[in-house]
Design brief:
The chain has 281 residues and is an alpha/beta fold. It is built from eight helices and eleven strands. It has two domains: 105 residues, D-amino Acid Aminotransferase, Chain A, domain 1; 158 residues, D-amino Acid Aminotransferase, Chain A, domain 2. It is globular. It comes from Byssochlamys spectabilis (Paecilomyces variotii). This is Aminotransferase.
């Protein structure tokens, strides 16, 4: 039986976006010549800054929060200046959790960011995992499959403080910490993969010629990520991967998932993460 979507009243939750502050980002981009594709502003230490602002604005618009929309009607420079007030030490990487309520009140929680290679914040250059390892990507995470479906709702499409469904999915497969290299795939009642509990997934699949992007090989196999119509979150790294052509959208069914298959995960704090599917824990 599928989990029911929450019936939370608008006043009781916030829209959120979590991103990485990392002073190495502008330097890595400037030293990379032309092999890194990355959206403006390229000189900001805030990872995918504009995408996070846009994500919050899209959510505020969906929930019809005029005061939140007014707060977000600022350019990336002004948005960065607001976030700067929360950074305790600009020489270190930080994890920022931005929360905005219906009254336009915005809070920023800051914690030390997990260590990661600067290269992992950008689109992977190769589909070969051995090559990725040489690029200083860490060992792969273990990726499990939830044991019951989740019903899509506005709280799965937009990231909010209503996270009970994702917390329950992690508990069902025995994930007890956000520090451990483990993740769970959630899926809808149709048997379509939606997303990970804290990440966007990408799988290697054969696609039609018209759908092939930069991540395709000569055999027509490409990285694919579930479409938003499956119910998952409109994540910032997902947008990054799609706009650069690293992946294309395609429905990914649960019965397609293969034990031991290699894939990518991504989110706004850790960038791109190698993963291996574990169906038999």
């Amino acid at each position: 039986m599928a989990s029911q979507p929450p019936s939370t009243p608008p006043e009781s939750f916030s829209i959120i976006s979590t991103l990485r502050y990392d002073p190495s980002i502008p330097t890595t981009i400037s030293n990379s010549a032309t092999d890194i594709i990355y959206p403006d502003p390229k000189d900001s230490p805030y990872y995918l800054l504009r995408f996070h602002r846009d994500r919050l604005l899209n959510a505020a618009t969906h929930f019809n929060w005029p005061k939140a929309i007014d707060f977000l009607q600022r350019d990336t420079t002004q948005f960065a200046q607001f976030l700067d007030q929360s950074i305790p030490d600009r020489t270190k990487p930080w994890r920022l959790r931005i929360a905005l309520d219906s009254h336009g009140n915005c809070t920023v929680d800051v914690n030390p960011a997990a260590a990661c290679s600067p290269r992992s914040l950008f689109i992977p250059q190769s589909v070969n995992f051995e090559t990725a390892e040489k690029q200083q990507f860490p060992p792969p995470w273990r990726l499990y499959l939830d044991t019951r479906p989740i019903k899509p709702s506005a709280f799965t499409t937009h990231k909010t403080t209503v996270r009970e469904e994702y917390t329950s999915a992690r508990e069902r497969v025995g994930i007890t910490s956000f520090v451990d290299p483990e993740e769970v795939l959630v899926f809808n009642p149709k048997g379509e993969v939606m997303e990970g509990s804290i990440t966007t997934p990408y799988f290697r699949r054969r696609v039609e010629i018209i759908d092939r992007g930069l991540g395709s090989d000569e055999d027509g196999v490409a990285w694919v990520t579930p479409p938003l119509s499956s119910g998952g979150n409109a994540g910032t790294t997902r947008r990054y991967a799609l706009e650069t052509g690293f992946c294309v959208e395609r429905v990914v069914r649960v019965d397609e998932i293969v034990d031991g298959e290699e894939c990518w995960l991504s989110n706004g704090v850790r960038g791109f993460i190698r993963a291996v599917v574990v169906l038999r824990k």
